[in-house]
TrEMBL record:
Keywords: DNA-binding, Transcription, Transcription regulation. InterPro entries: LysR_HTH_N, LysR_subst-bd, WH-like_DNA-bd_sf, WH_DNA-bd_sf. Belongs to the LysR transcriptional regulatory family. It comes from Aquitalea palustris. Pfam families: HTH_1 (PF00126), LysR_substrate (PF03466). Signal peptide: none annotated. Residues 4-61 form the HTH lysR-type domain. CDD domains: PBP2_LTTR_substrate. GO terms for molecular function: DNA-binding transcription factor activity; transcription cis-regulatory region binding. Gene3D superfamilies: 3.40.190.290, Winged helix-like DNA-binding domain superfamily/Winged helix DNA-binding domain. This is LysR family transcriptional regulator. It comes from the Bacteria.
Length: 302
């Protein structure tokens, strides 16, 4: 059996990705004729055409779609190899991306097992979920921490595991001695700080209020948990957020937890991509987080 020419396969992958011969040639800095010749050689080796021409666009044949699947896996594995070598895999480097709005207290809880390890080098990056997933896809990150799940598909095999579920609470300035907060009675009369409508917390909270026929007086909508934490501490309003976000303020008595909001919680996820090599350091960290949450579910929700 003749050996596969990976140079030909790379040219095929570029054309299939672009769906257009001219654009692929420009991207690869080769002539269209040279590119066509390379693909014809691959088709001759495989014994079937890989493209059908529809106007100025190229469509994959049935075999072309199969070959494209193999090509994406092959070149993704090559990218993983290069990224792993460049980042020092095997030398205790862990590259973690976190959604910019994620609770800093949760991130600290997740990283706690390795923060005191002098031999571990951490690279922490924040950004939007889409930006971080793109970096994860190209193996520039080892894991992405998010409060939104992602689903794999035929183009990308995401691995999304639940790390923790946090109760969502209402917090505010300490109440006078003896005063008891009642959710349905007191909520509508108080100025409320809440996550934005893009948040899963807000979605669940709005549905709960609809079911109970409540109309909360929302003073501000905030999509950054760090800012929501500051406003909860300094604005004198009631705030809707996971307890872990204001853990320190609750411990110091700066804020008081009025109630746990029924049927509303925030879930934290660790997202990885299917890889040939998953860092043992990351595997241990994920295992410890899952074990800690099972044994002490209050750990991440104080």
């Amino acid at each position: 059996m003749s050996r596969l020419n990976y140079h030909h396969l790379h040219y095929f992958w570029a054309v299939a990705s672009e769906g257009h011969l001219t654009r692929a040639a420009e991207r690869l800095h080769v002539s269209q004729s040279a590119l066509s010749a390379q693909i014809r050689q691959l088709e001759e080796q495989l014994g079937q055409p890989l493209f059908l021409r529809e106007g100025r666009k190229l469509q994959l044949t049935e075999l072309g779609a199969v070959v494209m699947g193999y090509a994406e896996e092959i070149f993704a594995l090559g990218n993983e190899l290069l990224a792993s070598a460049a980042s020092g895999v095997g030398r205790n480097t862990l590259r973690i991306g976190s959604v910019a709005t994620l609770s800093r207290n949760f991130q600290e809880w997740f990283l706690q097992p390795v923060l005191q390890e002098a031999a571990v080098r951490l690279v922490l990056e924040a950004g939007s979920l889409d930006e971080l997933l793109q970096r994860l896809k190209t193996h520039e990150l080892d894991v992405v921490l998010s409060n939104r799940p992602v689903l794999g598909n035929d183009k990308q095999s995401w691995r999304c595991r639940t790390l923790a579920r946090q109760p969502v609470v209402l917090v505010g300035p300490p109440l006078p001695a003896g005063q008891v907060f009642q959710f349905e009675r007191d909520l509508p009369a108080l100025p409320l700080l809440a996550p934005s409508r893009k948040s899963e917390i807000r979605l669940r909270f709005d549905l709960l209020c609809e079911e109970l026929a409540l109309q909360p007086a929302i003073r501000a909508e905030v999509d950054d948990m760090a800012m929501l934490r500051l406003l909860a501490r300094d604005a004198g309003c009631v705030a809707l957020l996971p307890a872990i976000v204001v853990r320190d303020e609750l411990d110091k008595g700066l804020l008081q937890q009025y109630c746990v909001v029924p049927r509303v919680e925030e879930t934290f996820y660790a997202i990885t991509v299917q890889r040939q090599y998953l860092s043992p350091l990351l595997q241990d960290l994920l295992r410890m987080a899952s074990t800690e949450q099972r044994m002490h579910p209050e750990t991440a929700s104080d």
